[in-house]
TrEMBL record:
Family: Belongs to the TOP6A family.
CDD domains found in the cross-reference section: TOPRIM_TopoIIB_SPO
One protein family per Pfam: TP6A_N
Organism: Glycine soja (Wild soybean)
UniProt entry tagged with the keyword Metal-binding: yes
Signal peptide annotation: none
Transmembrane in keyword set: no
Major localisation: nucleus
Localization of this protein: Nucleus
GO biological process terms held by the UniProt record: meiotic DNA double-strand break formation; meiotic DNA double-strand break processing; reciprocal meiotic recombination
UniProt entry keywords in alphabetical sequence: DNA-binding, Isomerase, Magnesium, Metal-binding, Nucleus, Topoisomerase
EC number, as in UniProt: 5.6.2.2
Name of this protein: DNA topoisomerase (ATP-hydrolyzing)
Amino acid sequence: MLRVMLIVQKLLQENKHSSKRDIYYTYPSVFLDQSVVDQAINDICILMQCSRHNLNVVSAGNGLIMGWIRFSEGERIFDCISSPNTAHPVPVHVEEVQDIISLAQYILVVEKESVFQRLANDQFCNANHCIVITGRGYPDIPTRRFLRLLVENLCLPAYCLVDCDPYGFDILTTYRFGSMQMAYDTKHLRVPEIQWLGAFPSDSERYFVPNQCLLPLTAEDKRKVEAMLLRCYLEREVPQWRLELQLILQRGVKFEIEALSVHALSFLSESYIPSKIEGKLIM
């Protein structure tokens, strides 16, 4: 950890930024494995009671954003409003984001890039004045920090659309409650206001998802659900979510968001998402 602390000290003194991967390759023969650097960074954050970005250690951005928003990151301007259905990268240096202007009515977070692209192709943001964000799977730190920044600054409702499976549910809880790995920095990363838009287990019946689109839970899926059911915060803060998670286990099946589009390619954009929000069919 001392070696990593010396590298971090140099970054701060020189006002430079580095990724964890860059730090590893500074002394690969000393660190031996990337996990050594990862753990050291976490330990330093806990010791110093700070966030990773305070150490000038940044993550390579993986998230995407589109919709009715304009903002700047340092000298770079992100003008999503001029082309609401065009994807832009989520900013990495979230602490430098300023001049946020938005005409959106809500923020929609989608689990996967494929769904994000489907919405873009359907010109979703033209028909719905909103901001759409994806972390492309499990969200990285910049995506989570940026989402929190937007919710705090714009005071907009935020909805999350994930696959109806254990991993989709885990991604949903990562946005709302944070992750165990980054528990020391939860207050800067969690978005407690986010609501679950879908997909719910009951959606397969409500929206007539064919049986061939319902996949059996694997043994690993079942173990993951059982482990998540032990999380005390679910029962305390979102008991309805926990009931839905139990329902996934009881039914023994899962399905992807795309299964809802089996009857029409643009079903998500034109029917599912708007009807969910307008009818308040969210949790």
